[in-house]
């Protein structure tokens, strides 16, 4: 295992972290986790050098923290740094911060959390938390020892990312980053900004939630096949992220022992700056080829929302694009079925036109929603 050193983090962390958001399931329900298998998987990763485990209050419908707590019994707690996240959508008053942190400590059955994150910061949550003095609470929890390091995970634009980075002396932060997301959310600009302030960065979705690790479409496979060194798409994806020196830990939501083994092996030699220029050029070609398969140029800005008829417009477009870009046929149709169950699917559009007037990209939203329903609603 490769361990990177950052002053702010204390002990060395394994560059591969275990993300407890995609544990093995019985069926499709994220709340129905195969508990014994998950515990075995987490311990297997720890036995093989992983020392950073990332969970959150809401993962697996609240079960993830409990399962991680169980996995860390029998001496495993002392072998790892444990990360979990404040459920910021539930903390509406100062007292809530204590309430949820104490509940999390109990669920995890631990006296302290090594890495605590304000989860999923965006404009709305950051303004709300700032208004109820979250940073005073953070100081207090650091002082009384319930948390050892403080950071935040982030899903919004890079200007807000910089604002939050500058607002506190953070120990670390967590962003979504992979070779398809260089200019998405915090992106490379955010990564480099955090690095310039000596704030180590943890990476989530390094394989775009698994889309970059699946069997690729033929035209993408043709590019990978030309590489001098043969590697799986998952290995290329992880290596690309680990090539950045600002990255402290790459989190991977591994769901099988085989994935754990492969990713540990990758992490051993994926040093910062270790990719050759021709390898970087090849990965760029892959990302351009994926991008050329986009069907609708929705940026996910959300200006078209809310739809009076509840259609979740950007998400309908995202899974429609995924269907064409990554050939995620089953995933996209499953997700569309779920949208339909919640009355948020493209089929619920009544063509009032309100969203089109608000879209800065001038997208023909109504016409495209019909196409989405035609393809994913089959
Ligand atoms: N703070 C936040 O807002 C937030 C948001 C997202 C994620 N996270 C954290 O970040 C972690 C990492 O994100 P992620 O789980 O989306 O990571 P990811 O690495 O992008 O995707 C994980 C998926 O990739 C596939 N995979 C991984 N290694 C593979 C391999 N060697 N070969 C083939 N497939 C492989 C698996 O898919 P299959 O299971 O389908 O095989 C796995 O479930 C999460 O688990 C969570 O802890 C945090
Ligand atoms: S046109 Fe359709 S999707 Fe757009 S706001 Fe009206 S009902 Fe919603
Ligand atoms: S306003 Fe347009 S670009 Fe933005 S999310 Fe809606 S459809 Fe996508």
TrEMBL record:
InterPro entries: 4Fe4S_Fe-S-bd (IPR017896), 4Fe4S_Fe_S_CS (IPR017900), AKR2_Oxidoreductase (IPR053135), NAD(P)_OxRdtase_dom_sf (IPR036812), NADP_OxRdtase_dom (IPR023210). CDD domains: AKR_Fe-S_oxidoreductase. The keyword Protein transport does not apply. Residues 337-369 form the 4Fe-4S ferredoxin-type domain. It holds the Pfam family Fer4_9. Keywords: Iron, Iron-sulfur, Metal-binding. This is Aldo/keto reductase.
